[in-house]
Amino acid sequence: MHVQLLVSSVLLWRECKGVSPPKMTTEWKTIRLYPIPSVIYLIHNNVQFATLTYVDTSTYQIMGNLKIVTTGILFRLFLKKKLSTLQWMAIVLLAVGTTTSQVKGCGQSSCESLFSSPIYGYVLGIVSACLSALAGVYTEFLMKKNNDSLYWQNVQLYTFGAIFNMARLVLDDFRGGFEQGPWWQRLFNGYSITTWLVVLNLGSTGLLVSWLMKYADNIVKVYSTSMAMLLTMVLSVFLFNFKPTLQVRVCFSHGFNQHFFTVKHYEFYYFL
C-alpha cells in the first residue's frame, strides 16, 4: 500500500506539472467517502483470518469463489448495471469451474474433512465473500463518481489505508510496551530481495486494478483474476512440472473460452 501511495503521488505530481492540471476535488463531502473502502478491507482481512480458524484450506479456497457471484449481484444492485443472461451464465460457470478445480479427488484423505467444519466457518466465509465484493463495487463507485484524476483518487484511497495500518502498528506498540522499539525501526526486518519483489508485484497489481475500476468495471476485474489463474497453471506446468488433474484441465479450457467471449462482449456493450 505504501508503494502504491508513493507511485501514485509521483504520477500525480508529474500530472500537475503538465500543461493542463488534473481535476482534483478537495471538498470534504467527497473526501470523507474514501476511508470507507479501507474500513471494509480492514474488516474483510480480519474476517479472512477468523474463517481460517474454523475451516481447512481447501474449504476456504472453495468458499472464496463465492465472491465471483456476490460481485455480480452487488454490481447489479448498487451500481444499477444490467448484465445479460449470457454474462450471468458466465459468472456462475466461472465460480463453479474454479471451485471444481480446487476440489481434490475423493480418494485423498483431505476429502473427508471437506465441508466438515463448524457452521461459524461457513458463515464467516459468506461474510468474507460479501465484504470482498462490497469493497470492489464501492471502490468502482468512487472511481467513477466524478472526473477526478485517477492518481488523485489513488492518493486518497491509499493515504487512508496507510493511516489505518500505522494506527494498528502504534496500537501493537502500546500493547507490547515498546519492548521491541517503535514500529518504524522494525518495519523492514526480515526483508529480502524476494520480499521486495513480492511487494512490488502486489503494488503494481493494486495500481492496475484501480485502472480497471476507473475505465472498466468489477466484472472485467473478476475475469482478469480468472485469467491470472490460467496463466499460473500454464507457468506451473513449465516451471515446476505441474501435472493438471482432469477437472483442472476441463475447468480452464472451458473457462478460458467463456472468459474471452464474455469480456469481449461486455466491453463492447460497456463502451457503447
Automatic annotation (TrEMBL):
Membrane-spanning parts: 62-79, 86-103, 119-138, 150-171, 191-213, 220-242
Superkingdom: Eukaryota
Matches recorded under InterPro entries: EmrE-like, Nuc_sug_transpt
Molecular function GO labels: pyrimidine nucleotide-sugar transmembrane transporter activity
Keywords: Membrane, Signal, Transmembrane, Transmembrane helix
Compartment annotation: Membrane
Annotated GO CC locations: Golgi membrane
The keyword Signal appears for this protein: yes
Entry annotated with the keyword Transmembrane helix: yes
Stretch forming the signal peptide: 1-18
Family assignment from sequence similarity: Belongs to the nucleotide-sugar transporter family. CMP-Sialate:CMP antiporter (TC 2.A.7.12) subfamily.
Name of the protein in its database record: OLC1v1038433C1
